[in-house]
Specification:
This protein is α/β, with parallel strands linked by helices. It is 40% helix and 20% strand. It has 2 domains: 2-285, Aldehyde Dehydrogenase, Chain A, domain 1, CATH 3.40.605.10; 290-483, Aldehyde Dehydrogenase, Chain A, domain 2 (3-Layer(aba) Sandwich). The strands form 6 sheets. Strands 14-15-16-13-12-18-19 form a 7-stranded mixed β-sheet, sandwiched between helices. A 6-stranded mixed β-sheet has the order 9-8-7-10-11-21, sandwiched between helices. Strands 5-6-22 form a 3-stranded antiparallel β-sheet. β18, α18 (457-466) and β19 form a beta-alpha-beta unit.
């Protein structure tokens, strides 16, 4: 992180410069525990202050392109986690009753500060996560869009009223915040996913304890610094670090009312089961196996470019990456070799290098797993027509690199198809008809995203009606909805009943309260009834 932070100090924002000092000051005890003295420790955010952890255990923070240790992340203690929860609980007493317009104004200022520090945030994402700078900018921008959407919360979270449900009686429903909620974030979108969570949660009146990925926590902390500068009161957002123990503590803590999770299958199923067993509301975005279907009438050049980028971009480490392409009829011979040739021309290097198309994978473990699934496919009969294993870009020989890889003649019973590879690997499958392609996709347990490439409107309509997948693209490779909609992954890709952001996101972070009121005229004081001035002198809406 230290090298990244030196780069980031080009920022003209005084607040961010202060934040960087807070986020990166060294802890001698922590450094000694790792046998190093020159790397910074990552701080927590508790009750509005960036503080050192008293943890005895740390995990190294590495640059995926070089494997250089650039920081260390504490596994926070139970006492520190409890402090974070209690800080959020105390802050909720005031924040939950703050006018919604005031909360929205904080988000309005927050999005302005993100724009001012946009490039610094993107550089941090690239250094810690490995993405190309272009992909890192996209990471920050897609999160920024959710912050912008959160500014519309005053109108989105309005309640309902019906008068005279009975004589002299009215009933109205209002949306109330839940209280303290928690967010558990993945490594692959270190800026976007936190911004899916706390801008929505906090603007409707909740407070949040956030756990970023221990593999790239810097963006979360930098964004938190900007949120504080924007006016977010202390305790409304707290940030802790950890692994399994902190996740279990979040699931079990009685003061945490809801959990937002994005990550892998195993952890996502665990969080959903443990969290709901403890009486919490949980939304859990998990794994995926996203398919593209290509018909022979698809526009060749656009389809080839779209699929090459969709499977290899961000090193394939995104939950909406196209990892399986189903070619119908003659499309198999028309497209597979062209896509392979396009992918072969993508530049693989460190994310900050000019014109880089594909960066490193997040860790040696992730690289080893992806390479193992490639080999499993070959062993089971797939034809590897583009093998990116063992690629070492000049100057980044120690990085976690896997160049784009294409497996041909894949069948649904192969391990490389059944499991999410989460790397720049495309599995090419054949189908005799559109009906067969739809049946193949619907038989897969995942339901995050899918796309169809065609020039036929009737085929597109049939596909979008019959496919059992939550997010569908027509000639769009990665159909992630904008924040005014919701991220609607389904089946094995999602657990819960209310999705992230959009109207569903607002509903997840609020609960209905319904009031039935009767005020007989006999209760009006005679003086007020005579003067007709009942209520005069009260503050105007939004002025308190």
């Amino acid at each position: 992180m230290l090298r990244a932070l030196h780069v980031l100090k080009r920022s003209s924002s005084p607040s961010l410069s202060i934040g960087l000092r807070q986020l990166s000051s060294s802890s001698d005890a922590a450094a000694d525990s790792l046998g190093v003295t020159s790397v910074p420790s990552v701080k927590m955010l508790i009750d509005g202050k960036f503080v050192e952890s008293k943890a005895k255990e740390f995990v190294p923070l590495t640059n995926p392109a070089t494997q250089e240790v650039i920081g260390h992340v504490p596994l926070c203690t139970p006492e520190e986690f409890e402090q974070a929860v209690q800080s959020s609980k105390e802050a909720f007493k005031t924040w939950g009753n703050t006018p919604v317009q005031t909360r929205a104004r904080v988000m309005l200022k927050f999005q302005e500060l993100i724009r001012e520090n946009f490039e610094e945030l993107a550089v941090n994402v690239s250094v810690e996560q490995g993405k190309t700078l272009a992909d890192a900018r996209g990471d920050v921008f897609r999160g920024l869009e959710v912050v912008e959407f959160a500014c519309s919360m005053p109108s989105l979270s309005m309640g309902e009223l019906m008068e005279n449900v009975s004589s002299g009686i009215e009933t109205y429903s209002i949306r109330k915040p839940l209280g303290v909620v928690a967010g558990i974030c993945p490594f692959n979108f270190p800026a976007m996913v936190p911004l899916w969570m706390y801008p929505m949660a906090c603007t409707v009146g909740n407070t949040m304890v956030l756990k970023p990925s221990e593999q790239d926590p810097g963006a979360s902390l930098m964004l938190a610094e900007l949120a504080l500068e924007a006016g977010l009161p202390k305790g409304v957002l707290n940030i802790v670090h950890g692994q399994h123990d902190i996740v279990n503590a979040i699931c079990d803590h009685q003061d945490i009312k809801a959990i937002s999770f994005v990550g892998g299958d195993g952890a996502g199923k665990h969080v959903y089961a443990r969290g709901t067993a403890a009486g919490k509301r949980v939304q859990s975005n998990m794994g995926a196996k996203n398919h593209a279907v290509v018909l022979p009438d698809a526009q060749v050049e656009a389809t080839v470019a779209a699929l090459a980028g969709a499977f290899a971009g961000a090193a394939g480490q995104r939950c909406m990456a196209i990892s399986a392409a189903v070619f119908v009829g003659d499309a198999y011979d028309m497209f597979v070799d062209k896509i392979t040739e396009k992918a072969k021309g993508l530049k693989v290097s460190g994310g900050l290098e000019p014109d880089c198309d594909v960066g490193p994978m997040i860790s040696p473990k992730a690289l080893e797993r992806a390479e193992g699934l490639i080999q499993a496919g070959i062993d089971e009969g797939a034809n590897c027509i583009l093998d990116g294993r063992g690629y070492k870009p000049e100057g980044y020989e120690n990085g976690n690199f896997l160049a784009p890889t294409v497996l041909k003649d894949v069948t649904p019973d192969m391990t490389c198809y059944k499991e999410e590879i989460f790397g720049p690997v495309l599995c090419a499958l054949k189908a005799d008809s559109l009906e067969d392609a739809i049946a193949l996709i619907n038989a897969n347990p995942y339901g995050n995203g899918t796309s169809l490439f065609t020039s036929n409107g009737a085929a597109a309509r049939k596909f979008q009606n019959e496919i059992d997948v939550g997010q569908v693209g027509i000639n769009v490779p990665i159909p992630v909805p904008l924040p005014m909609f919701s991220f609607t992954g389904s089946r094995g890709s999602f657990r819960g009943d209310l999705n992230f952001y959009g109207k569903a996101g607002m509903q997840f972070y609020t609960q209905w309260r319904t009031i039935t009121a009767r005020w007989p005229e006999v209760d009006i004081p005679k003086s007020a009834r005579a003067a007709g001035l009942d209520g005069v002198g009260a503050s105007a809406p939004g002025q308190d």
